[in-house]
Every structure is written in C-alpha cells, then in structure tokens.
Amino acid sequence: MNIFDKFFTKFAYKFPKGYPDMDNPSDVTLLESLISEATNFKFKLTEVTALTKRELEKDATFRGGVKEPRVNILLKKIKNDEPLTLVDGSEFIVDNKEEVIQALGNPIPAKGIELKDKEGNTITTSKLAKTAEFGGGGGMRGGSDITKAAENAQCIANAIRYNKGNNITSEDITEENIELSKSDVDGDGFNEGKELLLGNPGWLNSSVNIANELAAVYSGPFIQNRGSAWVKNLETAVKPFLKDVGIRDINKWNPADIWMVAPSEMNIEWPNNLGEINALLLEKYNEGTIVGVSLKKAEKSASLKITNLQRPDAVEYEGIAVTPRNAKAFITFSDGGSMEFRNFGGDTGFMGELEGTGAAAGKVGYGYIKSVLDKYNVEVSDPKTIRIQASEEDPKFKTKFKKLWDETEGLDPNDFESNYNARPTPKSNQAWRISKYLALELINAIDKSENKNEIIDAFVRYASSQGDESSIFVKAS
Question: Which of 62, 186, 251, 265 has the fewest CB atoms found within 10 Å of its own CB?
Fold first, then answer.
C-alpha cells in the first residue's frame, strides 16, 4: 500500500462517501486541512480564482463550447438560496437577495456587490470563488467527474440487477447489458458511468455488491435516478424551506446520491411543506416505491443502513476535552464518541465535526450551531467579531482570551503565553487564536448550559443527517 492509499484509508471515515467528493466544498476544505496538518504546510489543492468584477462580467464556458453569463449563474444560485463557495473554502448563503438581484442588473462596481447572510456577515462578490459551476475550478474536475461517474455507474448496475432478477457478478456488466439498461436509468452521465464500469475493477466490484444488496431488500421495479428531472424537481420543492430550519447544505436534509423510483412515482407532485414532504417520502419508502440511497465505495462486500426511519437514540453529554497547542476543542459523549470544534478554513469556517461515534461522520456549520444555541438562550461570540479583534491585535481580546483559558478545565494557566505566539508567522498565530478562542468559548458555554444534552444531540443528529428536519434514506457501503 503506497503512502496515498495509507492516507486515504486512515481518514476515509471523515468523508461521508468514504473518499473526498471533490464536487463538495466541505470535502475539499477538509482534505486540504488534513494534508496541511500532516505536512505542517498550508496546502491548497488549487489556486482559487476569485469572481472579481472582471471575472463576473465574463461568460462561463462548459463542455461542448456551451457558454452562459456568470451573472446569470449567480442570479440563479441566489434566487434558489444555494450556498456560494468563497475563496477560503467556506460557504455563504445570500440573505439580502432583492438588493443583490437588483444590483446584478446594473454595471458591477469595481469592489463588487455587497452580500449579507442571515447572521449579518458581509462580504462582496469579489470574495466568491470561480468554482466549476462558474466555468472555473479546473483542478477539481477530476474528483467531480469520478463522483458523477461512480453514481451513474451504480444506477446502471442496479438496473442490470433488477432486469436479470437474481444476483449479478462482474461478468454480467457487459457493454450489451449496459446498453439494455438505458431505459431504466435516468441519469446525467450514463456514458461516464459506463466507462467506469468497463475500465475500473474497484468501482465495478463496488457497484455490483451494492446492486445485489439493494435488490435483496427492495423488490422494484425502479427507474434509477441521478441528476435527473425527477431529482431536480424534488430538490426544487425542498430548498425553499431549508433556510427557515437552519439547514444550508441540502445533504443535511437528505444525502442520497441516487433515487430508486417506481415508474408509477416518476410524476409525483410534492407538498408545499417540508414536514409533509418528509412524511410522503417515508410513506413511499414503506411502500417500497421511492428509495433514496447514499453511496460509499464497497469493493469487498456491501451493507445497508436505514437512516431516519425512526428517531435515533439521543447522544448523552459527558464533558469537554482540550489540549493547549491544537486550535480546537472537543465535547465528549458517554458512548465514547466526541465532536471537534475548530476553523476548517484557516481563520474562517468555524464548524463542528463528529469523531468516532456510531453515527456517520459529518459536520455542523456555524449557522446551525447558532440556531440551536439561540433556542436554548446560550450566547457565544460571532466569529466575524473575534476575527476582527484577533487581527487588530486588540489587547482587550488577549485579556479575555486569557480569562477564558484560565477558566477552561484541562488547561494550565501557565501554558497560555507560550502558546499565544507559538506559530511561525503572524498569520498562522492569528488563525490559531481565532479558532482556539471560538472553540473554548463554545464548549464552556455548552458545559454550563442546563440543556447540554439537548444541544449536543441536535448537533450530532444534524451532522449525521438525522435531524428533526431530515428525511429517510439508505446508506449503502
């Protein structure tokens, strides 16, 4: 096993699919963070290009020479409340939509257009990254393409398995059978899936294993959907309600990569209410007519885990855990698991991440953290405020940081000064201070709350896509 295989095997559990999905900004940020920690060097997969005035005014060029104005792409994403990726790898959802939509209809100012999120954070369009959806991000397309190909490959293998009527082997995945499966696959990358099945033994084995396991539980018949009009219709119905319940990433509502849909449900109409949509998906799942499947590579054998069929057992709070040097802090659970809190994008991107629990690894962003804390009247600082205070070398910030440090169980007051400036550059010191302060403040605030169990349980269920607002899906791995 080479060094790269060892690295990805060690950290596979941190990624929802068992590997970094390069089409997912959170996965990219996490991968960069892991490599940076391992090498003690600030690592970036690509040099991210910003959507400056000049870049935003250009057309995006896609495969086949298709062009679309970047302004139009941005308008669509803002209208649909979709997260925008920033140059630092974090995400931003625009709240002042009407102002921005109006501004995008006029000449763009040199400094860009002001964007605000629901927490009051303000940036300009020049802080947005020119990702693949804006015709950029070339360095990430390999990962994006493999994700698309793997999910379409699974749709094809599923269709072949259901058409055959009994278990298949890799020998059944022939070019002829693949072509015959087309009528039962509604995907956005059939040819890419075909190429992967015929040219990659690892993905072929995984697709066959998962297809056999799914067919053993769900009788079908199904149309296998990935990126289809059916999927887009469902996502369009769901997205308007997610912001109101504190969900920024649609995968926290349902992380299904493919949807197995009975022919009779291909024209289903969705209710105008998130709770009713979730209830309808549960009803259709119990009938065996709509099954959302989240995929993780399974070369040797496959297993299925149904999530959100019933409310999961509550996670019980145990305590806090800290070390003086690392820019993070933990809350531990009675089952031996924990959640780590830190910045995932240098001096930005404050989030929590599950570590070693029975739940699937995942993250909870600051927006949802804040919504839960507000519910239980727990106050913490805004990351933007702390970032400003730390960058300005505010002596009052150092004083309150020292007070927080001294009050944190597990930290020695004598270790504060030696760690405050222990990094090699002013920028890395600043990033450490911001992350460490926010992490310590949060774990202390939760530790003092009378609702610590409820708070951490909400974080864990959100991170593992099992929140009150999430819907049923099957994890195949």
Answer: 62
